[in-house]
Queue: 2 jobs
Job 1
Amino acid sequence: MRIGEIAALVGVTSRAVRHYHHLGLLPEPERRANGYRVYTVRDAVLLARIRRLSELGLSLDEVRDVLADDAGRELAEVLGELDADLARQEEEIRTRRRRLAELTAGTLPPEGPVSPALARLLGAMPETTSAMAAKDRELLTLLDTVGGDEIVYDALLPLTRDPDVLALYERLDDLADAAVGDPRVGPLAEALAAVIPAEVLAKLARADGPALEGFGDAFLADFAPAQAEVAQHVMEALAKRMDGEGQG
């Protein structure tokens, strides 16, 4: 048989046969004087086995292990690993479908698909033109992507019903053009730190590492000078609260 004939017999392409030769999965057959490869029935049997193993989901490296007999792993072992991997993929798909069902069951926020807990929080936030409130929504969406916490979102829910919190956003907006050292900075920072729930504080206490430090710098750089000063004071106040609760 020529390469086209064996490929057609087994149900693969001639290109695939050449690729298997290149990888060493299928030995190169002898060539006739005219240069054509001559394939035997044994070659066809081996090629058919390569196709079956590939269709089971084995990578070509795993196929090579199976075909290597003494040097490779047993077929049962490779298939067992494949079955476990497929089971993990099935669970991941089920989890993603559950999340999609939860998202489509409600109203998606303007920020797009987020966790159900954050969707509840964003949906409960009052409508406002506050630039700082919009920035807060963006920050929550970012944090949700990198590791949101349902307990934290639920702890923040009561704040959406507190009119004083909206007033705090507006006070922050008023500092957009203020200079560092503005007398409104200190009182506003104290008021903001006071409304942070204990659950959020506990989440902050567990967060650590170089990535968090880099995020903190970028977070402050996203504010106007006086607003950044407020944020810095809030973080310092929260750090003192965490130290105090840790010692208590």
Note: The chain has three domains: 3-72, 74-105, 110-247.
Job 2
Amino acid sequence: MNDFKKEPNGSNAVGHAMMVDRRQLLMGAATGVAALGVASTLGMRSARAADRTEISFASANFFGKERLGDLVKAFNESQDRILVKFIELPPPSSSTEVYQGLVQQLARKNGTPDVFTQDVVWIAGFAAAGWALPLDEYFPKDKRKDYFPGTVAACTYNEKLTALPWFVDSGMFYYRKDLVDKHGGKVPETWQDMATMAASAQKAGDVKFGYLWQGKQAEVLICDAVEIITSNGGSILAPDGKSAMIGEKPAIEAIQFLYDTINTTKISPQNVLSWDEEPSRQPFTAGDGMFMRNWSYVYPIAQDPKASQVVDKVAVAPLPHFAGGKSAACLGGYQLGVNANTKKREAAIEFLTWMSSPETQTRLALNLGLAPSRPAIFDDPKLKAEQPFMASLQSVFTGATPRPITPEYAKVSLALQSSISKALVSGNVKAELEAAAAQVNKIVA
């Protein structure tokens, strides 16, 4: 039965439970039992199924060559102790509805769902509410070394592991190979070198826009800000998540650089201030941009002759950094959690472990296009053969940086979106970011 039904408050968080296909449990049954006929066979099947520990798994639905429900079915067929029932939520593109559905159910504290997936920015909030089971005893620090450090950091709240890495995405640096070859031959590693090369290509008339990014007052603006601030050695929040650093020099310099791309170096169009992912992607795949910050979804579009004018001319590298800094990519992706109120903890942990295993993550990568959170999988020969672009992203994901880790993330994000947007429009970067710091301090204090 689906517990993610429409709530009285009119939420649109509607999911529907997919009936999990139960495998045939009678292989090897005694000849005498088989002779009892169909009725007895069905009775035995029901009894065997009833002997299994039943747990529920709620997730946004991902699909490619197969669906997430197929993965759940594979787990059910891999053993005879646990039966997982899949509660299918809307896709990640409807993340608000997914979030509302999870909140409504977890807040009931009745143990359903036993296991769930969550956008990386929800982890701290679910943990602070007491809805996510701490996982430290099941996944000690030596096991966490198998995952990208940034993903583990995002799965940790108050020094406790409250989610398990599943799959990742991050911001990345797209560039035109032909134009880089013409204007220097080497992919720029610093923001300053990128701006110089982009301006050179523009001046030569080889490209209309030097650098495309996302400045719309939306969540993606925070992603862009996290990347460029971190690449200058700065941060939005202090490591403990209880004070703001957005008003400090590294952050001010980084946001000033973004402002300057529009108003000083003029390598970015004024329109970036109203662009999120797709509006910034379109001129790039139309052949009008030299460099672009975006997510992994862009690459297959860039290689599609029906949608792109730059087929075979595009490559990806880690995002640039400031002199003395390191490349940083904003972490995205969904991670796994266990309901703190589950009544079937051991079964939930077993399923969680299977879902995050190297074998399952490899299957997710090959069949659903979801990038592994385990670096070692990127060396898998089959992944390199079937998903060469994904296999090339290990260096990008290694620098993945989580957005501010705080249970008040939603409030912090809205405050930052407003302040950073004002800074980019007005040019009063220092004043706006210092004001943002004061506002954020009130939220997280």
Note: The two ends are 41 Å apart (CA to CA).
